[in-house]
Amino acid sequence: MSVPDHAGKSGKAFQKAKEEGRGALIGYLPVGYPDVPTSYAAMAALCGDGDNPGVDLVEIGLPYSDPMMDGPVIQRAGTSALARGVHTRDVFGAIEAIAATGTPAVAMTYWNLVDRYGVQRFARDFANAGGCGLITPDLTPDEAGEWIAASDEHDLDRIFLVAPSSSDERLKATAEASRGWIYATAIMGVTGTREQSSSLAPVLVERLRALAPDRLVGVGLGVSNGDQAADVVSYADGAIVGSAFVRTLLDAEDAGRPGDFSALRRVVADLADGVRRTPRS
Amino acid sequence: MTLPDASGHYDVFGGKYVPEALYAALDQLEREFTSALADPSFMDELHRLQRDYAGRPSPITEARRLSEQAGNARILLKREDLNHTGSHKINNVLGQALLTKRMGKTRVIAETGAGQHGVATATAAALLGLECRVYMGKVDTDRQSVNVARMKLLGAEVIAVEAGSATLKDAMNEAMRDWVASVDDTHYLIGTVAGPHPFPLMVKEFQRVISTEARGQILDTYGELPYAVAACVGGGSNAMGMFADFIDDPEVHLFGFEAGGDGVETQRHAASIGGGSIGVLHGTRTYILQDEDGQTVESHSISAGLDYPGVGPEHSFLASRGRAVYEPVTDAEAMDAFRLLTQTEGIMPAIESAHGVAGALRLGRRLAETDPDLRPLICVCLSGRGDKDIDTALTWFGIDGLPNDTVGGVK
Q1: Cys staple from B259: which of B238, B270, B345, B400, with CB 3.0 to 4.6 Å?
Q2: Which residue, among A118, A147, A116, A121, has the nearest Cα to A134 in the 3D structure?
Q3: In a domain, B99, yes or no
């Protein structure tokens, strides 16, 4: 199957899943929680092992002091990571730890961290470490001139978000500015698990498909179990999961076993099963 | 060129660094705001409320006894403390609450630091029949409990935010999170000239009335423009209101006084322009307090209303162009001015406003040395009254709330 240029690096993970007749699973964990080395190990655990499939793409979260798109679970992990001294540069080690499992990685970061590091310099160091691109929750194409130039120069993916409230005009412009895939937020809200599947997400993905038929779409916010993931990949190309993974790490630390990934592995297995459940046309 | 540009930039400052989910709401807000400003019925209603409800115009008081301590300067106070609810915050809140109704929304949310903006928002919500929720850092609900009680009495719901540093910036994060999920029926009534476009522009326009009145009042009474206008700067809404109509008068100096806390050199301050660097916070590019990684650094000020690690983007622009001058005022200088104004004029200012008064005193004394022949008029925006700060002041001055003596009792 030929991969279009705008599928970029991280889009290949979606394409590979497609070839296997299933949806892709994208898993988020923040770097630095419960500490930097353990977070690297947790991200590697996300990727599965041997006969146990894991996520197809890791989304490395950079903890930020003012995470306006995050709910309480990711906030708590991020605040702890910052208090324990995580730095922006720790994302590069995370990419290498994930690459050792053969799984590609993107990063999710609020814009001030990249701005402060220097957009060009961050793009260079991130590409050198082997990262695929960035998900930017508070940077839309409107303010992304410098990032678009730097990501072109260093061949990095630009994964912008779209929302149920996005106008057709903005959906189209965002799709055109994106490379890799497009992150569709399933609900109007912040990160965190939701019991019910979103009714807004299928409509949003359908609108996006009509306006930008050749683009890959992942759906996130509120997706936490195999059933929900199966539902999401029945209409989208990938399901994005964060808080459900982070929750297992918070619980493990609360139980005094911060390096215990057994619950994490169970959630991964359930979700990996979910994206394989619905046969795709 | 008129600023901001169409996408909300003041040169390199400003803009919209927000989740895509909020774009539709910001676009709607910008459209409605623009059409409302041009709609005589909207402006008539706003002016009616400013006059009959808030008590505008606010007077200018010449502070004669205070001015004895200010070199050769005559200090004029623009009395925003006399507005209904006790501060300039009502100006902006009435405008945005009317816009909320115009947009067909039924609920407002707000962040508040000292509680002044929260009280003003709860007040306008009561007046216009809007549901109201106010987010306030846990540290601030503890130190401003009277304002929490006022908001609750007005029918608002007050939510204490424990996340992060549990102060104003975290209250703003929480309000943004609420807004992303509730934007269909809810307006986020931001209290200062910060946040994403169009908030800095809109809040400035609703606060412009301060300088429109002051300019006319000073010309009427003194027959000349002031040498300088001055105001405290946290997010910077009263300062932007005080500056707005004077920006195009090149002979009028503009001074903003930021919260210097323990002193900018101690790192315990809230002076974003004087002691910060350029970054992105709460949807706008501006001067912020941040560490080497771009994580927001906690600000420190005795004044809860100035305790914010960012500043409105137009202030950053005015500073970068040298059109306005920003200087830090320490906690100690502000409290000295608080006592001096109270005991020379019988006007107890909010501690926020005391920073502006301290700065004006410093400016007057400095001019007496550099330009001894000058008799400058300095107009300070007295942005709020000090009732809410009595506990803080008693602690600072080591005064107890007991009488000096007791008489008339029979043992």
Answers
A1: B270
A2: A147
A3: yes
